Amino acid sequence: MAARKPAAKPRVRKCPDCQGKGEIAETVRVGARKGRATADQQAALCLTCFGTGEATD
Is the pLDDT of residue 1 over 80? Predict the structure, then answer.
């Protein structure tokens, strides 16, 4: 009987929004009502993949 080959791991696609990093750069907004956008940015969790970096089907 022939030996079985180990199952190949399925190739995981990268998330299109964060390019597989798990976080994105979000613009900082200041102000009470309309929120004026500043030139500053902060890291935020990618809501598409919830920080895993893997694309969901």
Answer: no
State the Rg of the chain over Cα.
19
Greatest distance between any 2 Cα atoms in the chain: 73
Q: What are the pLDDT digits (tens) for 11-53?
A: 888 998 898 888 999 888 888 887 888 889 999 999 888 888 8
Which two three-digit tokens encode residue 32? 């009470």
Distance of CA 29 to the CA centre of its chain: 21
Distance CA 45, CA 52 (A): 9
CA angle 35/23/17 to nearest 5° reads 90
